[in-house]
Amino acid sequence: MRRLDAPWQIFSLELTALEGLRFPAAAAQYIFDGKARAGAEQEWNRACDQDVQIVSFGCSQYPAALKEIYDPPPVLWVRGDAGLLARPSIAIVGTRHPSPYGTGMAEMLGRDLAARGMLIVSGMARGIDTAAHKGALAAGRPTVAVWGTGADVIYPKENKKLAEDILAGGGAIVSELPLGTFPAPQNFPRRNRILSGVSVGVLVVEAGENSGTRVTARCATEQGRDVYAVPGNVTNKNSWTPNTLIKQGAQLTATWEDVWETLPSQVRLEIEAGRPVESKSDDGASLLPEPLLQVLGAHEAIVMDVLRQDAALQMDEILELVETQLTSSEVFTALFELELAGRIRSLPGKNYVRSF
Length: 356
Hints:
Layout: H1 15-20, H2 25-32, H3 35-49, E1 53-56, H4 64-67, E2 75-80, E3 89-94, H5 100-115, E4 119-122, H6 128-138, E5 143-146, H7 160-168, E6 172-175, H8 187-197, E7 201-205, H9 213-222, E8 226-229, H10 240-247, E9 251-252, H11 256-260, H12 265-274, H13 292-295, H14 298-306, E10 313-314, H15 315-321, H16 328-340, E11 344-347, E12 351-354
Parallel strand pairs: 3-4, 3-7, 4-5, 5-6, 7-8, 8-9
Antiparallel strand pairs: 1-2, 2-6, 10-12, 11-12
Helix pairs in contact: 5-6, 8-9, 14-16
């Protein structure tokens, strides 16, 4: 690119000139034979047919933040709104096997930060990534998923509905891989540098010692991005990475305010300028519950009082804890009302946990 006046000239060069650009012999022959041009045209037509934008390094829509990293992808395939990539964003990442506490924290932080104008970016993997995207969507805000597959290959399959919701909510799906690329283990660690590269910081919520999340945190540090981490129970193996990051200097994060207070002033001004007037609420953030009897009925308050945010309780355990105060039918009714109100979540196996 430095030695040519324009990219298109590569298609008219002689074989010796291509080899002079330090292409391997097989690659130079591939270009000279016209196969590279034909492949590019085929990919372009496929993208147009599937309503996918191809954003190259020189395009105005290519995110400026991504150009700053050591190895920016030369091409991005984007489904949805490519303009979102220019907005201040934070990547929320973590384990694929979170605890109820981790899931709740990721969803709460995704929701609260999105509601205040930050774009939530994640990888749409099961677990923490999924919770972060759902939090942003719950706030009625767009979110961006960066995939380690082609932009037309949903992975994991169980997140098909989430992918549809992201696009329907005005968000975007981004990949550096050609259409039709199926999941391969080596693609996901490389994808992580894009997650951190487009963001002002990376927020880690639960990850084990050997988790791929550590790759994203390391990329963020190398790229000069801020690193945030949600502290966890020291006896939980998924607390190893966030707790270690905090010891190494990452910003301890319990609420959206912990992120907001550390943002550069120009980033905050940019976010404020893009926020709708009605969303500019500066209520203090708190993890402490409201006095239950002020907002719930007596039976619901009793059941709510025994439930936890950091661990699920099985139905039999709940009945045992409140057996001197409520009958089983009153407990069933209270659980139904609490779930309907969004105060609790039911998990497989008749387990229940408080919502954040």
